[in-house]
Amino acid sequence: MDYIKEKLYQQLAIDYCCQISDIKDDKNHFMKVLVTGFDPFGGESVNPAYEAVKLLPDIIEGAQIIKLEIPTVFRKV
Questions:
Q1: How many structural domains compose the chain?
Q2: Is 14 among the domain residues?
Q3: Domain limits at 10?
Q4: How far apart are CA 76 and CA 56, in angstroms?
Q5: Residue 35 in 3-state DSSP?
Q6: Closest alpha carbon to 19 in 60, 58, 73
Q7: For 51-66, b where at least 16 C-beta lie within 10 A, e where not — what string?
Q8: Three-state secondary-structure class, residue 50
Q9: Cα–Cα distance, 11 to 14 (Å, whole number)
Q10: Is residue 30 part of a domain?
Q11: pTM for this structure?
Q12: Which of 9, 44, 59, 69 sits most deeply, having the most CB atoms within 10 A of its CB?
């Protein structure tokens, strides 16, 4: 079952990763891309969205991939 989950997360990471080709800023520096996913919530032990984010490579087509887990906070308004 863990193998299947890992393959699913890998496919999610591939499916949700945009195609980046030589993205540079005006000073010819390669860009950084921030990719986020929420931490587990609702009593779950993992959040598949962030698991997919963690599987992304650190560099895609020259762009540095910054991975960040966002805490889930619920409050009443």
A1: 1
A2: yes
A3: 2-70
A4: 34
A5: strand
A6: 60
A7: bbbebbeeebeebebe
A8: helix
A9: 5
A10: yes
A11: 0.58
A12: 9
pLDDT digits (tens, 9 = 90+) for 18-37: 444 455 666 666 788 999 99
Domain annotation covers residue 50: yes
How far, rounded to the nearest angstrom, does the alpha carbon of residue 62 sit from its chain's CA centroid? 16
Q: Looking at this protein, which amino acid is placed at residue 42?
A: G
Six token digits for residue 41: 């919530």
Residue located via tokens 């805490």: 71
Task: Round to whole Å and give the CA distance between 61 and 72.
Answer: 31
The first and second tokens of residue 25, run together, are: 């800023």
* Integer angstrom CA distances of residue 16 from 8, 9, 12, 55, 71: 12, 10, 6, 11, 20
Band of pLDDT at residue 63, cut at 50, 70 and 90: confident
Length of the chain: 77
CA separation for the pair 55, 28 (Å, rounded)? 28
